[in-house]
TrEMBL record:
Keywords: Cell outer membrane, Membrane, Receptor, Signal, TonB box, Transmembrane, Transmembrane beta strand, Transport. One of its GO terms (molecular function) is siderophore uptake transmembrane transporter activity. GO terms for biological process: siderophore transmembrane transport. The lineage of its organism: Bacteria, Pseudomonadati, Bacteroidota, Chitinophagia, Chitinophagales. It comes from Flavihumibacter petaseus NBRC 106054. This is Putative TonB-dependent receptor. It is a multi-pass membrane protein.
Length: 920
């Protein structure tokens, strides 16, 4: 018996010893020798990894690994360190030092890991700690502090980002990837900020490439690319919770203070000896959106001096329905009475995001990933009109096989939008359901507009008993008899009915569009002469709007595009010179193919001082909406630019430019006021009209040259400066034209009948998608400085200068630049100022500029200069694995507008609690 007991104990001891020898154990501390929780330990060149517990300890399964091996140890805000392991029996101890650009690693610039200082093009990065301690309401909003980033707020939950000019509130020139997935809804064709993105609690890092990135990322990366990476479930395990509540609309005359809430949950776990891992995410955000309430008269047919509340042709910027106007004989321009946006828009907003990721390791280097994302939202945004999407759903399915830096991936993205609507169209439709004829009978909607103008003319001309003649206020009051008042049962019932009808019958938006995407890349590690990388992609859009946005009710519209790239990198001169060359070819079935090469050189002139230069090219295919939209929005029809989309409509061939129509209408109005008859005024002013010659749409292109310098001086001061010059051709833009019923020209001059059509309702306005015939250029420079002070303080700032070079180009034939000339950021922070108290503050300023966009008919509108201060103070509670944060976005509550016609934005004040890695 004693022998058996001894034998069993020996076996157990041996097994225990063997088990211990199968693991690497150790402790990670910070630069003050404090234990580091959630530090990352990864086997170099493998996919094996783990993180430390709250005491800084870790255990890594090494049963499938061969010695010697190298561990990469990292923690947010501290420098990465590589440790060679030759013996499993001895625990290791690693002390990480303060982080700097010397050891910051980026991936997006070359699609492979490289040091930030040595990247061949400009790139910015927000790491994990920066994400956790952003002063803004969300990490996405804090991206504005990155050098060269432009951000425009089109709603509480929607921020539009861009770099290097030519921006818009619906910006299709900028690519946004989340774990390699294009985040644009297939029907909108632009990313709606982080509305359908990822909760802050699952963000590991964000990398920004300003400028053309088409050579590696294809047509959508024309102006730049933002790559967001989420947390690896093998590394970041356990339960994490995020609770934030705050208020906005403080001292806002449009609404009293309102609650803003943001909650999120993440759980991740690895199983089966670290072979399988999963993570589950959920986030929910809600609040009352900002109001758009600029009622400035923007009537294009009224001289600026005559605009204002007393203008009979009044067309308010955020008032809808008053776009319907006529020039009445002997009276002049008269517009219908519109409704303010606040009476038409649903300003409640929410975003609910959820995802499930399943990952399995085949050995140490090969991983299979499946991920499902679903997001649903209610929000308002600005496009050619102010839109509301209610219950908009975006879903993606992704499957990926990854081996180190090589992968093959396929995903689908589909949207469901049944309850969205166009507020401008809504206002016009409501105006057609209450109009009475001169006998007091309500007419049918198809006769309402003309009947209203008939009533107005009769009252103004003195033919209505009891109405003072030649009095615009009295004539409008008579024409508006029976007008539905906002928030009455009749108004609400009509509003509800109109928003549920699609296409030409209502203001509703129906969109069930999808796209299917496959891409991959392969790193040729067996090639020794150069670092060689190649890849390709294929995408198919499957459009389904049931005829409401595009002409697909009786026909199927699909669009296929594909591309491939190759990149080679070579180190020369004892690794001081790095040369990189890449070229990509892309083809859309509706257009000719495009080659986009990129060449770059990075030279280390002395230790940690790098000069870089690059020549880049970019291109952008017209989006499906650019190509095929056919939306009748009452007074204007928005028309995509491929030839078969407007076949038989005679728009591109027979129309006048909007600018000339405005000059002509103003001239007629002035002539009539001077005593001419309307017929005489038409004949006298018709020469002001200009026939449009806009081409059908084609891809837009750019070529850019950039030089830059990066340095880390004394391991404290990080310097990054660059200059770029870009040349643009075939810029895609919107052009507004008027198509008369008659031919625009007759016997070599403007046709009088066509000119008359523009005044008597015999014409139709179109917003065309076309290309700029003139060439334009842009240039700019940025300077960024970051200094690491003693005791953990970091101060930094950046300044961006942007300039549009019009040259000899016609301003009406060039895309709008929509970018401030100067913008700056200054920030200061300390992650551990005193006993785990930290803070972060950022000041942003940008100067004034003119905004051009389809919302205002491509006419200029001022965006005034403004500044914002974001600040947060936090307390970390390591034993509870939590952090409490109090902060403010726009601390001083400056009421600003970032794009003409979009909402007025104020401050948001919040408190949050984050709990990380429970039950790990």
């Amino acid at each position: 018996m004693k022998f058996c007991t001894t034998l069993v104990l020996a076996i157990l001891l041996c097994a225990s010893t063997m088990a211990q020898s199968q693991h690497i154990k150790g402790t990670i501390t910070g630069n003050k020798k404090e234990p580091l929780a959630r530090a990352s330990i990864v086997v170099k060149g493998k996919m094996n990894g783990t993180i430390t517990d709250e005491k800084g300890n870790f255990t890594l399964d090494a049963s499938k690994l061969k010695l010697p091996l190298t561990l990469i140890v990292s923690s947010a805000g501290l420098a990465d360190q590589e440790i060679t392991v030759t013996d499993l029996s001895t625990p290791i101890t690693v002390q990480l030092e303060q982080k700097s650009a010397l050891n910051e690693v980026v991936v997006a610039a070359s699609r492979s890991r490289e040091n930030l200082l040595q990247s061949p093009v400009s790139i910015e990065k927000m790491n994990y700690q920066a994400v956790r301690e952003v002063p803004s309401l969300s990490f996405y909003e804090s991206l504005q502090s990155l050098k060269g980033m432009e951000m425009f707020s089109v709603g509480l939950g929607i921020k539009t980002v861009n770099t290097r000019g030519f921006n818009g509130t619906s910006n299709a020139r900028f690519l946004q990837l989340i774990d390699g997935i294009d985040n644009q809804p297939p029907g909108l064709n632009f990313p709606m900020g982080n509305l359908f993105g990822v909760p802050d609690i699952d963000v590991e890092s964000a990398e920004l490439i300003p400028g053309a990135a088409s050579a590696l990322y294809g047509p959508s990366a024309f102006n730049g690319m933002l790559s967001i990476q989420t947390k690896d479930p093998f590394k970041y395990q356990g339960l994490s919770l995020y609770l934030k509540t705050g208020i906005n609309h403080v001292n806002d005359p449009m609404a009293g203070a309102q609650a803003v809430n943001d909650i999120a949950m993440r759980y991740a776990k690895s199983l089966f000896k670290d072979r399988f891992a999963f993570k589950v995410n959920f986030g929910y955000f809600n609040g009352l959106d900002w109001y758009a309430h600029d009622y400035t008269d923007i009537s294009a047919a009224t001289p600026p001096a005559n605009r204002g509340p007393k203008n009979p042709g009044y067309d308010g910027l955020n008032i809808y329905g008053d776009e319907v106007a006529r020039v009445l004989p002997g009276i002049g321009l008269v517009a219908r009475t519109g409704y303010q946006e606040k009476d038409l828009m649903n300003y409640n907003t929410y975003s609910a995001k959820g995802s499930v990721s399943l990952q399995y390791k085949f050995g140490n280097n090969l991983r299979l990933i499946y991920q499902y994302n679903r997001a649903q939202a209610l929000a308002a945004f600005t496009s050619s009109a102010r839109m509301n999407v209610n219950g908009f759903v975006l879903q993606t399915h992704r499957i990926e096989l990854r081996h180190n830096n090589s992968f093959i991936r396929a995903y689908s993205s589909g949207e469901i939008c049944d309850n969205g609507y166009n507020t401008r169209t809504l206002g016009q439709f409501i105006n057609r359901y209450w109009v009475k004829d001169l006998d007091g009978n309500v007419v049918t909607p198809d006769k309402a507009d003309q009947t209203w103008f008939t009533r107005y003319a009769a009252a103004y001309n003195g033919t209505v008993e009891g109405i003072t003649a030649a009095n615009h206020d009295a004539a409008r009051s008579f024409a508006d008899d029976g007008r539905m008042q906002p928030n009455t049962p009749a108004f609400n019932q009509t509003k509800d009915a109109v928003t549920k009808r699609y296409g030409t019958q209502g203001a509703g938006i129906y969109s069930h569009n999808k796209f299917y995407h496959a891409d991959g890349q392969y790193e040729f590690t067996q090639v020794k002469a150069v670092n060689l990388l190649a890849g390709g992609s294929f995408r198919m859009y499957d459009m389904n709007t049931n005829g409401t946005l595009i002409d697909d009710k009786d026909q199927k519209i699909t669009i296929k595009e594909y591309g491939a790239f190759v990149q080679a990198m070579k180190q020369l001169l004892n690794n001081k010179l790095k040369l990189t060359a890449s070229v990509r070819y892309d083809k859309n079935e509706n257009f000719k193919g495009s080659f986009t090469p990129r060449f770059s050189a990075v030279y280390e002139v002395m230790k940690n001082h790098y000069f870089r230069a690059s020549v880049q090219t970019g291109f952008r295919n017209p989006t499906p909406i650019d190509q095929y939209i056919k939306l009748n929005a009452g007074p204007i029809t928005i028309l995509g630019g491929v030839p078969n989309n407007s076949k038989g409509m005679n728009v591109y061939e027979n129309s006048f430019t909007a600018a000339s129509v405005g000059q002509y209408a103003a001239g007629v109005q002035a002539s009539v006021a001077g005593g001419m008859s309307q017929a005489e005024a038409i004949e006298a002013n018709k020469s002001k009209l200009v026939q449009s010659h806009y081409p059908y749409i084609t891809p837009e292109k750019q070529s850019a040259f950039e030089v830059g310098y990066k340095a880390m001086i004394g391991n404290r001061l990080y310097v990054d400066v660059n200059y770029y010059y870009s040349r643009y051709t075939n810029f895609i833009l919107n052009a507004v034209v008027a198509r008369p019923s008659h031919p625009v020209m007759a016997d070599g001059e403007v046709n009088t009948d066509a000119a008359a059509d523009l005044l008597n309702g015999g014409s139709q306005n179109f917003q065309l998608y076309t290309n700029a015939s003139d060439k334009a250029s842009g240039q700019g420079a940025t300077l960024g400085l970051t200094y690491n002070l003693n005791r953990g303080f970091t101060v930094g700032g950046n300044v961006t200068w942007s300039s549009f070079i019009l040259g000899d180009a016609d301003p009406s034939k060039v895309a709008p630049f929509n970018t401030p000339k100067w913008s700056t950021n200054l920030n200061i922070g300390n992650t551990n100022l005193y006993r785990n108290f930290g803070f972060n503050a950022n000041w942003h300023w940008q100067d004034a500029f003119d905004w051009y966009g389809p919302f205002n008919g491509m006419r200029p509108g001022p965006v005034t200069a403004y500044s914002l201060i974001d600040v947060q103070i936090n307390k970390k509670l390591p034993q509870l694995k939590s952090m409490i944060k109090i902060g403010a976005s726009n601390l001083l509550n400056n009421m600003i507008t970032t794009a003409y016609g979009s909402p007025t934005i104020g401050g948001v004040y919040y408190v949050s609690l984050t709990i990380d890695d429970l039950f790990n």
